[in-house]
Design brief:
This protein has about 425 residues and is an alpha+beta fold. The protein is about 60% helix and about 15% strand. Strands 1-2-3-4-5-6 form a 6-stranded antiparallel β-sheet, with no helix packed on it. The longest helix has about 40 residues. The protein is extended, with a radius of gyration of 31 Å.
């Protein structure tokens, strides 16, 4: 017997379709006119549709069934709920810790909300995203197993491999969002958050450097006695060019100013400069008060502050690493670790999901408490391995790509054994 709610739902659907039909009669007349006067057009459309029917096989929605949508909604919903819950608690704790500093440095409410916490949320949400994925999978899968839904699916002929499909589709979505956030959104947010912290939390950024020497090109070495990043100005600048082991040019300038409004990079203005060019025993001297010059260095090459690698987008990070390697710089490991970690962290969702699903798909006595405990322990072990491997890469000469992927490799082995012992 159909209940009243079903009748109301079908009645609303009928009224909506009737409303659409009454207001689109003109479209039907237009189609009928084209069909009478341009029959070849409809034949061409039918021909194309017949010969492009194979495209239906690459349509991803073709392979997502009702069971898949059910699990995907459960997965994504639990994941978002767990993130919202943990981030809410983190914000409350952070406010409690920093309220005195906000008051002491007279931080405006608008800056606290939009410059600090609005950028605080995506950073920490993405940082602990593998933890949230693991907990979400264990939480709702244990609930499905407790309600005998997993048993029903397996008894109906759904294999465990087929059951993993909606989980993997959810991981593709989460990993894509995580990679985009870590590579393109969070770096800009970190710049705003670090500027706020330097103003209102007394976390001073490194804004000056002394006695900086770097290779800015093949056979070209630059030296700055003192550089002020706030003013983008350097003092006591020199630039030496070598051909082989022979010095062919020596440039000095009292001051050097970076052009921040130029359309392209590497534009500097030299003040009170002198250029000495050597050609055998001859020397040509050029001097002046001001000169615009193109020097292959940027302010980020001169100043390093803690967490600077987190303020670069992935393309900027890749360019910076390539540039520093070409210059022969050794201070590039932490940038390489950050670059590879962003890629490795995106794949962590797949590995932890396989472990969580394999552990919690079997119905056991005691409920989901044991699974949640195991999930939290494994998640914190994963985060600890990330920290330890990064430290080894920076201080013990471990290759950065290996350091970034060590947690994934270890947990991939764990995921394989969990999958082998999962209920089939």
């Amino acid at each position: 017997m159909v209940d009243f709610s079903e009748l109301r739902k079908h009645h609303k659907r009928y009224r909506m379709l009737r409303w659409i039909g009454q207001r689109t009669t003109w479209a039907l007349h237009v189609i009928a006119w084209f069909k009478r006067h341009l029959p070849w057009l409809f034949e061409a459309i039918a021909f194309v549709a017949r010969h492009l029917s194979w495209l239906d096989f690459i349509n991803p929605l073709r392979y997502i069934k009702r069971l898949d949508w059910y699990i995907i909604k459960k997965f994504i919903g639990t994941y978002i709920y767990s993130i919202a819950l943990i981030i809410s608690i983190s914000i409350v704790v952070d406010i409690n810790e920093n309220l005195a500093k906000f008051t002491e440095y007279h931080a405006p409410l608008k800056a606290i909300i939009f410059d600090y916490y609005l950028n605080f949320i995506p950073y920490f949400a993405n940082l602990f995203s593998p933890l949230f994925v693991f907990i979400a999978v264990i939480f709702f899968t244990s609930k499905l197993a407790g309600n005998s839904e997993i048993i029903s699916m397996l008894a109906a002929g759904v294999s465990f491999k087929r059951l993993m499909r909606p989980y993997m589709l959810s991981c593709i979505l989460i990993s894509a969002v995580s990679f985009y956030l870590s590579g393109y959104v969070i770096p800009h947010s970190n710049i705003i958050k670090q500027n706020f912290e330097s103003l209102y939390k007394n976390k001073k950024l490194n804004t000056a450097a002394d006695n900086v020497m770097l290779q800015v090109g093949r056979g070209t070495v630059a030296y700055i006695q003192h550089y002020d990043n706030n003013a983008k100005r350097g003092y006591g600048f020199s630039l030496d060019k070598f051909y082989g082991k022979k010095l062919i040019s020596h440039l000095t300038a009292m001051e050097i100013q970076y052009d921040t409004i130029s359309d392209s990079k590497y534009h500097w203005t030299l003040q009170n400069y002198k250029i000495r060019k050597f050609n055998g025993y001859r020397e040509v001297i050029e001097s002046g008060a001001k000169k615009d010059s193109l020097i292959l260095m940027e302010p980020t090459d001169l100043i390093y502050s803690k967490g600077q690698q987190e303020t670069f987008t992935s393309p900027q990070l890749s360019d910076y690493i390539s540039k520093q390697i070409d210059r022969g710089s050794s201070n590039v490991v932490q940038y390489q670790v950050e670059y590879h970690k962003r890629i490795a962290a995106s794949f962590a969702s797949f590995i932890l999901t396989v472990i969580g699903l394999s552990l919690s798909a079997k119905k056991r006595k005691g409920g989901m408490g044991l699974y949640l405990g195991i999930g939290l322990a494994l998640s914190f072990i994963y985060i600890m391995l990330q920290t330890i491997s990064s430290t080894f890469a920076i201080n013990a000469n471990l290759p950065p790509i290996i350091a970034a992927w060590i947690p994934n490799i270890i947990f991939a082995v764990v995921a394989y054994f969990c999958y082998r012992h999962a209920p089939k």
